[in-house]
Amino acid sequence: MRVRIGSLVARLVGAAVVASLLLFVSTAAAIWWTARQDSRPVSDAIVVLGSAQYNGEPSSIFEARLDHARKLYEEGVAPVIVTVGGGADGDVTTEAEAGVEYLAGEGGVPRGDLLAVPEGSDTLESVRAVARVFDERGWGSAVLVTDPWHAMRSERMAEDAGIDAESSPTRQGPAVQTRTTQFWYILRETPAYLVYRATGESVSGAPGIG
């Protein structure tokens, strides 16, 4: 009897391991697939998810996102670019405000078409802050600009927050430099996505992405 029970437990554990592995692989494949899509429907706003900034200067990752958002704006995807992201203790500004300054300066985007939402220390907080602004302004749709591997989780969070969201990931910057870099970003983003779907909470995914 004990042998039978032990065998059953071993089979159940084995089945659970296989199921978990299949879930991880299928999610990673979905992240990879979403990363290669580029949706640009006419929307209420282009939303640039923040990344690091240094004394008001966007990091290379953030700069790549901002440049891509400017191109979408120039193509008429949306009349407004929303930058989002808070600041850390000691920062002279926020990610959102640094993004606006970059787009208004080097990008040449009129300030009237820029909106900073200086809130959020991770993607979930930022998306929820943007959703509140959308509600206040009567907006419903957005094109999200972030790194490719972050697109699927960002879309899901935005949809859960009540935004009709699609993504147009940037194709430049450190996150897409080499296949090895892409592999590690997907490897780190996959559990972050699974944890969000299971708990509704945010954890850090790829480097520079919360």
UniProtKB/TrEMBL annotation:
Domain DUF218 span(s) in chain numbering: 44-190
Domain of life: Bacteria
GO cellular component terms, A-Z: plasma membrane
Pfam families: DUF218
Gene3D superfamilies registered for this protein in UniProt: HUPs
CDD domains listed in its UniProt record: YdcF-like (cd06259)
Protein name: Uncharacterized SAM-binding protein YcdF, DUF218 family
Lineage of the species this protein comes from: Bacteria, Bacillati, Actinomycetota, Actinomycetes, Geodermatophilales
